[in-house]
Amino acid sequence: MNKNLEQIVLAGGCFWCTEAVFQRIEGVESVVSGYTGGHIKNPAYREVCSGRTGHAEGIKISYDPAVVSLETILEVFFATHDPTTLNRQGNDKGTQYRSGIFYLSEAQKEKAEAMISLLDENKVFNDAIVTEVTPLDVFYEAEEDHQDFYNENTSQPYCQFIVAPKIDKIKKYYSDKLKK
Predict the structure, then answer these.
(1) Any idea what DSSP says for residue 25?
(2) What is the pLDDT of residue 3?
(3) For residue 106, with 0-12 CB atoms within 10 Å meaning exposed, 13-18 middle and 19 or more buried, which class applies?
(4) Would you call 14 a catalytic residue per the annotation?
(5) pTM score, two decimals?
(6) What are 48-58's pLDDT values in tens digits?
């Protein structure tokens, strides 16, 4: 892995959606789906879905800051999920679907908090942002069948009706940030 890569963990509801979005952003080298922010070790998907582990479905993004800034990553993150609903994204309900930024450095924390303040001050959303900004403790990689999910399952109804519109949105509004 390139020594100049940085990482951040984001939770924006179902990890299938956020993974598919960030796989398409120029400068993002890898996206891994997983679980973070909970209280049991090595959780499994079924346990996380129960809502009893405290984990959020998240993605670990490895990116080249010389190609894509953290600010751009955060902008895309906020543009492709609803950061104003507590423990919910669309029909997905529970703490596992909460909005969160799990930072690895004080600089990431400051940039995340500055972005939230900017969005709130400019009333980009009708309601206040409830995205948690928390230091990353542990990130557990999700099971293999959850990795690269959208790309492997584009014909599934969930992918067609929930994930594909997010892909269309970044193609429309962030075409200059997409991989060639």
Answers:
(1) B
(2) 72
(3) exposed
(4) yes
(5) 0.96
(6) 999 999 999 99
Cβ–Cβ < 8 Å for 71, 10: no
Q: How many residues does the chain have?
A: 180
What are the structural domains of the chain?
6-177 (3.30.1060.10)
Tokens linked to 21: 């979005």
Tell me the angle at which helices 15-22 and 70-79 cross, rounded to the nearest 10 degrees: 130
Output the DSSP codes for 52-88: -S--EEEEEEEE-TTTS-HHHHHHHHHHTS-TTSTTE
Closest by Cα among 4, 2, 10, 5 to 103? 10
> How many angstroms separate the CA atoms of 142 and 43, rounded?
9
Q: Cα separation of 116 and 134, whole Å?
A: 13
CA 167 – CA 46 distance, rounded (Å): 26
Lowest mean pLDDT among 14-18, 73-77, 91-95, 175-179: 91-95
Given 14, 17, 49, 159, which residue is catalytic?
14
Dihedral (C-alpha) 59, 64, 65, 66: value to the nearest 10 degrees?
-160
